[in-house]
Amino acid sequence: MSSDSEAAPIPWYRWPTAQVRRLYDWTIEWSKSRFAVPALFVLAFVEASFFPIPPDVLLMAMCLSKPKRSFLYGAVCSVGSVTGALLGFWIGMSLWSALGTSAACPDFEGGALVFDYMPGFTCERFGKVQELYQDNAWMALFTAAFTPIPFKVFTVAAGVFGVALSTLIAASAVGRSARFFLVSALIYFFGPQVRVFIEKRFEQLTLVFTVILVGGFVLLKYLH
Q1: C-alpha triplet 180, 82, 207: angle, nearest 5°
Q2: For residue range 150-199, what is the model confidence (pLDDT) as tens digits?
Q3: Are 187 and 68 in contact (CB under 8 A)?
Q4: For a Cys staple, 157 with which of 31, 56, 129, 192, CB 3.0–4.6 Å?
């Protein structure tokens, strides 16, 4: 007989959600650290240029931990992301050719390391972004900044395809601020209720978040 203090084994089908829950609990605790604000800035910065993990999870955890500072955290996240968009733009504008030409994407004349190692970058998606920029670069950037579409694909492509820097900055600032301040506002005004809702329906929300994240890549494939 096992003792009452022993944890019940987790069914195999709940193991992924259980790991995400542990990460959530760890993030909530870590968000109280004095290093949390710099980490939020860095995460938002790198996600806008080459890193695959969005900063929303850490932003939410920090806002839930200290709801009265939610708008400060939203501002840090927004500034970090827009600054990171400039790095993505520079990669596309200045380093693209130096990264080698991909055998799978010779028409783009560079960016081999990007296509090979950065999640979310494919020849097809890059071609779609080029078409979107030809139609309306500002709206394409704003949409990518506000939605789960991989933002880094658009920031790097902006440099490659010669989008005006002012367009990149304006669309990124509006889209990213709208996204992150929306999260901040919801938690500032409804913090305790939001936390109870998340913790009661964690498994369902994990599934929804996964579908939304995957949906961002699918949406990029079919946008035209």
Answers
A1: 40
A2: 899 899 999 999 999 999 999 999 999 999 999 899 889 887 776 666 65
A3: no
A4: 129
Helices H, strands E: what count in the chain? 9, 0
Q: What is the pLDDT of residues 63-120, one digit of tens each?
A: 888 889 999 999 999 999 999 999 999 999 999 888 888 777 888 888 888 887 777 6
- Residue whose token pair is 């305790």: 192
CA 128 to chain centre: 19
Segments making up each domain of the chain, as ranges: 36-222
User: Rounded distance, CA 50 to CA 142, Å?
Assistant: 18
Whole-angstrom distance, CA of residue 135 vs CA of residue 26:
43
**pTM metric for this prediction:** 0.75
Show the beta-strand stretches assigned E in 112-157: none
For the stretch 212-217, contacts whose Cβ atoms lie closer than 8 Å and that sit 24 or more positions apart, written own/partner, are: 212/148, 213/54, 213/148, 215/148, 216/147, 216/148, 216/149, 216/150, 217/120, 217/125, 217/149, 217/150
Two tokens at 24? 């959530």
